[in-house]
Design goal:
58% of the residues lie in helices and 0% in strands. The chain contains 3 helices and no strands.
């Protein structure tokens, strides 16, 4: 799932100004929330993250990111 998340983040970076960007963010957030629910509690590599404003609150709370 972590590889999928990285792929989705890369897809967003390539399409962040396109109409499908919002759908890509929703997909990313759903995958990350699922990972957290399944017990994933490690910080992601920078290339696997979206900007903090687009990260799910569950992830930000877990790592106290500003």
């Amino acid at each position: 799932m972590e590889l999928k998340l990285s792929d989705v983040a890369a897809l967003w970076r390539g399409n962040k100004h396109m109409p499908q960007a919002e759908m890509i963010v929703r997909q990313y957030q759903a995958v990350l929330r699922c990972m957290i629910e399944l017990g994933f509690h490690e910080p992601l590599d920078t290339e696997s993250e979206l900007p903090n404003r687009l990260m799910p609150p569950e992830y930000l709370e877990l790592f106290h990111k500003p």
